[in-house]
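Checklist before submission:
- one chain only
- standard amino acids only
- sequence pasted in full

Submission:
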Amino acid sequence: MTTDFTGEHTWLQIKHELSLRNLIEGSEYQEELKYDFNIKGELRHLDTNEPFVFNYYKNAHEQNHKRYQVLGHLITQYVYELLERVCMLQKVYIPTDATEDEPRSFFFMSENALTSSSSLTVLLQDRGVFRAGQWGQRIIISEGLGHGTQTPFIKMALESRGGVIVLNPNDNFVDVKTEKERLSFSTSQEALTAMESTWWVPKRGSCNPEEHTMYVWDHFISKSAAKNVAFIAHGYGGLVFVDLLVQRKGEVMNKVYSVAFIDSTHNMWHQTRSDPQLQEWIQKHCREWVSNSKPLDKAVGSVMKLNCPTVSAGTEEYGLAPSCSLHSIFKYLKSTLKAKTATASRLSPVATRSRTSKK
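Returned file contents:
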């Protein structure tokens, strides 16, 4: 189901001053990238109203790829603005004890994320060139903001009166010479080049997705007032969550009530090192939505990956799995939270004392 960007009472309203075009005009590609997002959140050419065309230069793949990278970088900045100015999330820099000139990463959270005792939803994206607030950059370009960004998920989490934390696991390096963020580490050769460079410096506490997630857990999520934390993890984000579960076993099992995996790359048997307690917890508290030809929520069996209940995301396209399973995921989280709350209420000491006092 797509997000409606045009409804009269729609939550996500793109304001006139919040424009991708304004960002493009500040770059060297003003003429080559005459694009902006329309009222439906679709990327369209300003003159032709056509979708994005990769082959702008004839017989020049490298030049076209550079143009595509620039667009991706500008979309990243645009989504950051969406998170702060439309979703009203706060940008939190880490590590918290960074020196004045030390490279820092950051993540986003709602105003009440750490103080609300109700629920907290944590969004954990796949691995790639994209940053916080995005499920996939290619999908944003081809299908629009409603499919490629995390804003519909943020909206639904906030509407349930809970807090939201948007992790930024792919923001790992900075070029201290130019103070420019590294655009990509999607290939092993790029990663090798970055590590060999004297200028690319890893960000302490966020050298990789696992370290970033662990840092935010240790310094923020674990200390939050929220008694019920849910994770929504896409692709490599699922592997990162299971790593967190293994490393912080007691804390995570006690604080996290449910996990929604989307096409996760985790391996329960390998990562949990055959720990039956962890495997039982995953089977009981997690559900996975996978790209599949079956209708949404229909059971999908897998001989190779028997880890938790697995259902169809309602699409065969990997990049569309998050947006297609959006409502199903929140319905699942709502039902599991309701079940946990009911169980806790029955087992609470207050209820026991109340029944005893009536005798």
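Reviewer check: The two ends are 53 Å apart (CA to CA).
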